[in-house]
Amino acid sequence: MPVALSLLMFGIGLSLTIGDFRKIAVKPCSLLAGLASQMLLLPFIAFVIAASVNLPPELKVGIVIIAVCPGGATSNFITYFLRGNVALSISITIVNSFLTLITIPALVYLALIWQMGIGHSVDLPLGLTILKMFYITLLPISAGILVRNWQKKLALRLEKHMRYILPALFGFIYVVAILGSRERYQEDVTDLYVRVLPWVVLLNLASMSFGFILSRLLKLEKGDQISLTVEIGIQNSALAITIAGSALFLDNYLMAVPAIVYGMFTFFSALSFGYLIKKFSR
């Protein structure tokens, strides 16, 4: 999985130049809007949904956990596939990787106190998180950018093949992550899947809709509209499953159910939503 993710990030990096990131640094409006939305608005939407539905407390906490885990490789790949502003997507992902060291423990703790009256320590190891981000994200993306800037012809040839390889690679990662998370739990939770499905769909659609409306209000270009919509609308289901179900964190399979269900459809919903923006938005 780490090797597959690194190859995915390298392929995405081949499509970028240093100038792409320089533009964002000069005009950071879209970056700041994406960060503020992911850190503040999405958790708020999740808390509202959780407060409004008739579900067990563990599932309500699970819905909140999804919202506090910003999209990673998934949102980057979808943006790349739709020819959105990949540099913007990656910039938001990188900054979020550091912000979530604070926001995830704080918001998950708040959700646990609110729904279950107890508090668990949810600590994301700083050193390990930085190393993972460096080796799986920053290093391969940087390598791809350097190849693009130093050997442009080679990068363009590689990228032509990557257009076919990356979707297959991402499909492998996606299937392994979802099947692995389901096999981890032996209990029959099919009924819970059905019960939680409408609410995680609502979270996903509400988030993407807000991202699109915000990008229109900010009068962003179409590529930025796609990036902002996908980044705000897609959460990192793999991270949410890990936090909810791993013995290192909350070790509660019920809390992981919303993230498992969420991960089964969001790739396709985001791809469809982004395609509509690409086709009809001006």
What share of the residues lie within helices?
over 70%
- The oligomeric status of these chains comes to single chain
Number of helices: 12
Radius of gyration: 18 Å
Main sheet: strands, sense, barrel: none
How many strands appear in the DSSP assignment? 0
Which topology does CATH recognise?
Na+/H+ antiporter like fold
> Can you write the helix and strand succession as a string?
HHHHHHHHHHHH
CATH class, named Mainly Alpha
First CA to last CA: what distance?
A: 38 Å
Q: What amount of the residues lies in strands? A: under 5%
Shape: globular
pLDDT average, as an integer? Answer: 81
Low-confidence stretches: none
Q: Would you identify the CATH architecture? A: Up-down Bundle
Account of the 3D structure:
It is built from 12 helices and no strands. The protein is mainly alpha-helical and 282 residues long. The protein has a single domain (2-280), classed as Na+/H+ antiporter like fold. Helix 3 (29-52) runs antiparallel to helix 4, helix 3 runs parallel beside helix 6 (86-116) and helix 7 packs antiparallel against helix 8. It is globular and about 60 Å long. The N and C termini lie far apart (38 Å). The model has no long low-confidence stretch (mean pLDDT 81).
